[in-house]
Design brief:
Helix content of chain B: over 70%
Number of strands of chain B: 0
Radius of gyration of chain B: 24 Å
Distance between the termini of chain B: 6 Å
Structural class of chain B: mainly alpha
Strand content of chain A: under 5%
Number of helices of chain A: 10
Radius of gyration of chain A: 22 Å
CATH class of chain A: Mainly Alpha
Strand content of chain B: under 5%
Shape of chain B: flat
Shape of chain A: elongated
Distance between the termini of chain A: 16 Å
Largest sheet of chain B: none
Number of strands of chain A: 0
Oligomer: heterodimer
Number of helices of chain B: 13
Largest interface: A-B, 43 and 46 residues
Largest sheet of chain A: none
Order of helices and strands of chain A: HHHHHHHHHH
Order of helices and strands of chain B: HHHHHHHHHHHHH
CATH architecture of chain A: Orthogonal Bundle
CATH superfamily of chain A: MetI-like
Helix content of chain A: over 70%
């Protein structure tokens, strides 16, 4: 099913994206130093031949922390995205397929969540939940699922009217069977594109919460939290902030390119049919 | 049209009830330990429960919600746990700074993105287009806290161009403008490209109408509706963005107030912030929706009412 989604010209941008994910997964084997080892004699060393990106105020190697931080930042964003896109799509598909009261209740609930500016809600929810990376992700998830529920609901409403659904019903397939075999495979493409375009935003929002002190807690190496720690030393030790900052920028840029490309590819496929 | 406005107003009621209920529930869920936080565990349980009673935390949840909702409507939202000042007063005092920041950012965004988007479209696939697209891609991929810190580093610390903290609205507004402007430029470019393909443009060209006249008289008005749509869409991220940017630049608005309040667990202030931001967001969206219905007859007459 995924094969037509990955034609040759997509591979060019999938390479850096996959590389990033691999770095994130195997981060602990790639760090030149222990990212949590303090060495106060080398605190705030500018980039040199030993610490390629310099050290922070505890003398921890920033390159190692940026590498291990990719794990925290990228993998938690991807995990969060996987959860909200799957849960959201399932809710939307069930709503669109069943209609009636379930649909009304769930859609009115999503209206309420959508009425909040995403970051305003996330900041307050993360604060109320008491900080920490998991709570920050949970705060983003509380609103995040609504987008997927909406998209998958409207797609399901269209699919529901297709002749092959009637055919499946006549053949005696139950609701669950139709949903799994006929509806979900047809909404997978657009949901995948939406999720891919969302990766960058989610990474920035998670890092933003950590930057405000509402996400990953010290000493955890997380890009947003690292930047928060370096904020007061912008003038004297800019490398503390610049390295994780550029790490976020590059990661978001790569995933945005991937999302754009994926959207073009799926659009092309849609036009051809 | 009037019927439509009325029905949209009525639809707002359950949304507003939902917003207030969710905000209140979320905060109350954890508000109990706010009292522990105030006293840091150094006093007896009796003093704590007296404080809880004083703050109304000992009553039934729905009664508390009802009281608080009444307060939202009448502007009496209790007192800050920390400063003891009236919440609504504090909020109203700091709101103008945030509105100023937002308006300046929006103005800067439109002033930068409109010419940039049009230029990119007119010079499609030439150097200016590539440059503008590259810049907007970069702007779109940078989190606003990084943009803010970069601006401080380069403009204020390295070049001594702009004052950093508190005084001037330029730096925080510029920070918000960069990511917003990137989105607007992309969108305006796409709209102008679309418009330039239309037959009337070719007709005007063949009649010898100058390219400049075509752009200003025909193409420029066509971007009005998409820009209003974008504005409504970006208000959400702008409201969230102000929290981060105000914190970085020590801009004394409601965003910084909220972040400070969260770190201090000052729940009444957070509740006021969240609920009012959501109300502002919902109302602006409604206004934008009505406005572009008014501006674009195709939308107006496409529906019944």
């Amino acid at each position: 099913m995924l094969k037509p989604l990955i034609p040759d010209h997509l591979s060019l941008i999938t390479v850096p994206a996959l590389a990033l994910i691999l770095v994130a997964i195997f981060a602990q084997y790639l760090t030149p130093f222990d990212p949590y080892a303090q060495d106060l004699t080398r605190a705030l060393t500018p980039p040199d031949s030993v610490n390629l990106l310099g050290t922070d105020r505890y003398g921890r190697d920033i390159l190692s922390r940026v590498i291990i931080g990719s794990q925290t930042t990228i993998l938690s964003a991807l995990a969060l995205l996987a959860v909200i896109s799957i849960v959201g799509s399932l809710i939307g598909a069930v709503c669109g397929f069943k209609g009636g009261r379930v649909d009304t209740i769930l859609m009115r609930t999503s209206d309420v969540f959508l009425a909040f500016p995403q970051m305003v809600f996330a900041i307050a929810a993360a604060g109320a939940l008491g900080g920490g990376l998991f709570n920050a992700a949970l705060a983003l998830a509380l609103i995040g699922w609504t987008k997927y529920a909406r998209i998958s609901r409207s797609l399901t409403l269209t699919i529901r009217k297709m002749p092959y659904i009637d055919a499946a019903k006549l053949a005696g397939t139950g609701s669950a069977g139709i949903l799994i075999n006929h509806v979900l495979p047809n909404i997978a493409g657009p949901i995948l594109v939406t999720a891919a375009l969302d990766i960058g935003t989610i990474i920035m929002e998670l890092a933003g919460l950590s930057f405000l002190g509402l996400g990953a807690m010290p000493p955890t190496a997380e890009w947003g939290a690292m930047m928060n720690n370096g904020r007061s030393m912008l003038q004297t030790a800019p490398w503390v902030i610049l390295s994780p900052g550029f790490a976020i920028f590059l990661t978001v840029a790569i995933f945005n390119l991937l999302g754009d490309k994926l959207r073009d590819v799926i659009d092309v496929r849609g036009n051809r049919n | 049209m009037r019927k439509y406005i009325l029905s949209r107003m009525i639809q707002l009621v359950p949304i507003l009830l939902g917003i207030t209920f969710l905000t209140f529930g979320m905060m109350q869920f954890t508000a109990d330990d706010a009292v522990d936080k105030i006293y840091e565990g150094s006093v007896s349980e009796e003093i704590k429960s007296a404080k809880r009673a004083e703050l109304g935390l000992d009553k039934n949840f729905m009664i508390q919600y009802g009281n608080w909702l009444g307060g939202v409507i009448t502007g009496d939202m209790g007192r800050s746990f920390i400063s003891g000042k009236l919440v609504f007063e504090t909020f109203a005092e700091k709101l103008p700074a945030t509105i100023e920041l937002m308006l300046v950012s929006i103005l800067l965004t439109i002033l930068i993105a409109t010419p940039a988007g049009i230029l990119a479209a007119v010079k499609q696939n030439k150097f200016p287009d590539y440059l503008i697209r590259a810049l907007s891609f970069i702007g779109n991929s940078m989190p606003n806290f990084f943009v803010g810190l970069l601006l401080i580093y380069f403009l204020a610390l390295k070049l001594n161009l702009l004052p950093i903290i508190g005084a001037s609205v330029i730096m925080p507004a510029l920070t918000l403008t960069i990511s917003m402007g990137a989105k607007y430029t992309r969108q305006i470019r796409a709209v102008v490209l679309e418009e330039l393909k239309k037959p009337y443009v070719m007709g005007a060209r063949s009649r010898g109408v100058s390219e400049f006249t075509i752009l200003t008289k025909s193409v420029l008005p066509s971007i009005l509706v998409p820009v209003i749509t974008l504005l409504a869409l970006s208000i959400g991220s702008l409201l969230g963005g102000t929290a981060i940017v105000e914190t970085i630049f020590m801009w004394d608005g409601v965003g910084k107030m909220a972040v400070d309040a969260i770190l201090m667990r000052d729940y009444p202030l957070i509740q006021a912030y969240v609920v009012w931001m959501a109300i502002i967001y919902v109302v602006i969206n409604l206004a934008a929706d009505l406005l572009y219905r008014f501006l674009d007859p195709r939308i107006r007459y496409g529906e019944n009412g």
